[in-house]
Amino acid sequence: MDWSKAKTILIVAFIITNILLAYVVINEKPVDESTIKDEFVEDVVRLLKDKNISIATQIPKEVPYLNTMIVGYEKLSINELNKNFFNTTGNVNDDRDGFGTLENGNESVAVFNNKLIIYENKEEKEIYKDLNEEKTIQLAEEFIKKKGFDISDMKLNFIKEDKGTFYLEYSKVYNDIYVEKAYTNLQIDKRGIKRFERQWLKVRNLGETKIYINTAPKSVLALLGMEEVYGKTITDISLCYYFDPQKHDYLKEPGKARQGKAIPAWRIQFDDGYKVYIDEY
Question: What DSSP string runs through 186-229?
Answer without folding.
Answer: EEEETTEEEEEEEE-EEEEEEEEEEEE---HHHHGGGGGG-GGG
